[in-house]
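This part of the workshop introduces the protein records we will be handling. An example says more than a description, so a record of this kind follows:
>
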Amino acid sequence: MTATTNRSPGRRAVTDHGAIERAAFRLFEEQGFDETTMEQIAEAVGVGRRTLFRYFPSKNDIPWGQFDQSLRAFAAQLADVPSDVPVAEAVHGCVVAFNDFDEQSLPQHRIRMRLILGTPTLQAHSALRYAAWRGVIEDYVAARLDVEPDALLPRLAGHVSLALAVSSYEQWLREPGSDLTRILQLEMEALRSYLR
């Protein structure tokens, strides 16, 4: 998705979420998340502050990228799982698929996850994002089991899935050459084995 802006000569006329993220991540790496301002990010991208705020309402939203769009795709993927697939298997498969990135995206995704998991000032904002992610799973599990989304089992499925994902990301960040998808698979299989 791109947007055109009318800027004075010398400024780029087109930007997108990816360009903003790349510029912001570079600044976050160089000078720290807390020390980087939205003005500096706008300058690095070559857009005005107002344009930047149209893409990201706050600096805290930048590490999360186009998360709302990803959640819609996640919900659609769960909805497409045939009803004869067991609920646990459906959730497992879709959580792994949600976190499966092509090789080209991994370096930027690694920076993203280091920011999200390691920046104290992002934790409150992250809690809201985590709740939205869990909500997708809770809604799916509730629909499959014909119960309310805030019933015990859907909430448990959401929380456990999030814990597994976060644990997998922590492992992946500690081991730069590791395979995120494989770690997720192993953690989910280990939990299933433990619960058996």
About this structure: The first strand starts at residue 2 and ends at 4. The chain has nine helices and two strands. The beta strands are 2-4, 14-16. Residues 1-13 have pLDDT under 50 and may be disordered.
